[in-house]
Amino acid sequence: MSLIGNEDVQIIPANEASWDDLQAVLGTADAGRCQCQWFKFGGWLWRASTQEERVAGFREQTGCGDPDATSTSGLVAYLDGQPVGWVAVEPRTAYPKLRNQRVPWSGRDEDRDDGGVWAVTCLVVRKGYRGRGLTYPLARAAADFARERGARAVEAYPMIADPAKPITWGEAHVGVRQVFEDAGFVEVSHPTLRRVVMRIDFAGDRSA
After folding, report:
1. pLDDT tens digits, residue range 162-176?
2. Domain total for the chain?
3. Which of 44, 157, 171, 200 has its CA 20 to 30 A from that of 87?
4. What's the whole-model pTM score?
């Protein structure tokens, strides 16, 4: 349970939430069309995928409605009993598209196949609940979840919020820097003008 102002937020593994609740968070706009599959498809496979394939893949990955599932791909947040947020967090190797993108690797000597490093790739707040700081407890919960599931480290690839260059909700699906700073992540690289790599090393070893 997390607290925002005077509001209690409950955050649970997606397999303990219902599929309908998760779809209510994603809605019918960009997040609903993507179904958190952008980083799951490498190269041309994303363009070739259908909405039905993305929905089916996401449903299998989350294991929604199966509290006994041995794995899930993220967490769902509730406020006053209503589903309001989603964060994707899994081993970095679960995201094939990350393997060949500039942002995670530019200027870094990393083992791209290290399953001990987890990644936070998506943060979504349900329309009607945005602007209330809900991404902050989601980022903290994602780090805790990765650590509890045996991660050696967890990374994120957020945007830099600049008042002169507003960030749209489509761009902000990776989160913004201050949210991860609040959750204890530290910047390890700055590969583009508006993107940073941030990380928590649970064992205190940032050389890997």
Report:
1. 766 666 555 678 999
2. 1
3. 44
4. 0.91
